[in-house]
Amino acid sequence: MSLLTPLYIAGLLGISLPILFHLIRRSPSGQVPFSSLMFLSPSPPRLTRRSRIDHWLLLLLRALVLLLLVLAFARPFLRKNSEFIANGLQGRRIAVLLDTSASMQRPGTWEQVVKEVDLLLEELAPEDRTAIYRFDQRVTEVAGFDHSLRTNQQQRHGLLKNQVQQLSPGWSHTELGLALSTVATELVALADQDEVHVGASLQVILISDLQQGAALQHLEAFEWPENVKLQIRTVSAPEKTNASLHLVADRSQTDQSDENWRLRIDNAAGSTSENYQVQWATSEGPVPGISPSSVYVLPGKSHVMRLPERKAASWDRLVLTGDQQPFDNTLFISPRVQETFDIGFVGPGSNKNPEDLLYYLDSVFSDDPLRNIKVVQVKNPSEINQPQNIPVKLVIASGNLDAPAVTSLRSYVSKGGHLLYVIQEKTSTESLRTLLDDQDLQLQEADVTNYAMLSDIDFSHPLFTPFASPQFRDFKTIHFWHHRQLKLNTMDNRRVLARFDDHNIAMIEESLGRGKIWIMTSGWQPDDSQLARSKKFLPLMVGILERSMGVLAGVPQYSIGEEVNCLTFDQQPDSITIHNPQQDKFQLEKNETHFKQTTLPGIYRWETPKSRGFFAVNLKPTESQTATLDPSRLEQHGIQIGSQLSSEEEQEQERQMRDRELESRQKLWQWLIALAVGVILGETWLSGKLARTHTSDAKETS
User: Fold this and answer.
1) pLDDT value at residue 82
2) pTM for this structure?
């Protein structure tokens, strides 16, 4: 026999109560006077060393009642060994996620991760199988479940410990949502496809500082599996103070000189320090003789300041001092290199005549400290595709184009060039059809009464995003006297950017190969419109130039892990050589247009057969948000936070469920209660009989 609630057996101590009551002797209450004894001296009753039990049967019945009640509350049942068969010791399948992002470089943090892994391996049962993954902005398998299928548990754990000891935090930001969704998906796929893992409990254990800057976007469209649980083991840096340094560059500024840049110093909410210093430095350390700029930042606040004056090209970084967490205290800024390039103009006109398109380009694309720009009128468009020392970043064309010119321009764009084509009154429909590869295209002069205005503008497009604010989005003051009516097919690579108030197309964008073509159906010269004399003309044309260059000229700033568009360096490079901060050399071939090995913060140097330059790679600002993330934010995405039971715990839980089922089916407690009631009735009858017998004996004695 087994007991479902064996703790009630402690109630057997109550059996001592009837025994105690039977041993207690009470003196008779009241006095009966006898006349014959009134002259005798009273004598006290004789005391014995112990009392004796007179009614053994009555005592046993009362003790039996208590015994039956205690057994009933303990809920006994009869267990048969054949009725319980364990499902097998499958154990758990545990995916351990180790955070190796930049914030884990804080002193004392990674050491806690290694200790947590050691503790975790000691807690595992022999049937558990473990895989280890590392993550930052990507997820990488360190040791898969195949490694943990070895029969020797000590050997398995030794292998995993060695793998963890070889890891170290990197510089990438934390894509926590991507890591959780990826590993959860792999766990479910593993349980569905591999017979070795079918039926096992699925567990994800996250060991991380769980900083607030961790990205969770991948969890928004992800449905967390119901059979996967997440256990969080948070580690933290002993020093809570953290300040960070980041660049704030306004890319809408046409003059991107140092004095127009801003720095932002962020101070963590729990920081105990408020005073910091910012100073220029080189690869050899802080610049001697230059006093640092003092900054006062309250905890949980930010401070924006101008970039300190840079007096030498070798000053390539700013260092923040006064902080105990150095991983985000250096901001790299690429050395100043003026870029030289041409803007080609194809079509009729003169830069001396105010009635021509070309006249206004020289004033728009002027030189600045970062760019040496020259507008060149190209007589033969085929020259654009020929190798030259100075690259052509943008081609502006107008008027009629013959077949060779159209072929050259399409070749230029397909290789990564950018073309702005302005349709004039005498533009040939055939040349435009060939340029856009649309034989159904129709072109004619629009009938304009008084003037036309721009009324339907796509402000979500990068060209018009600077005008999206309410104070800048009004184009109604720009009048268009003439424009062309353009009808063309709808294509996936074609996008309408603006329309006139008569619903005719004003501007479109079409992708061709690696480049883009912009078409304007009206010019900016006075005969066509007031565009050249408006305040919108300069930022619009500069925006087209910036789009042609890939990134903002003169501000080559990237984040860790971000791809670098190599067409920014050279429009048609034969090859590009890039050196990272550790002087590792990377050679990109002609067909490679993106550099992806931005894994280290610092200054990168690039070289092409035509030019050379630098770009800076810095830590992503979100990685400096080191305050702890509330786990409830993960639960909001449907993640079940908790721990799966071990095989022994599952077996014990299943045994308890089977015991409850047996006890519920047998219901032996009911029989015990009935028997106890019967014994109580018997004890009541017996005690009554003994009481009557005692009364009769007393009367006969008297």
Assistant:
1) 44
2) 0.58
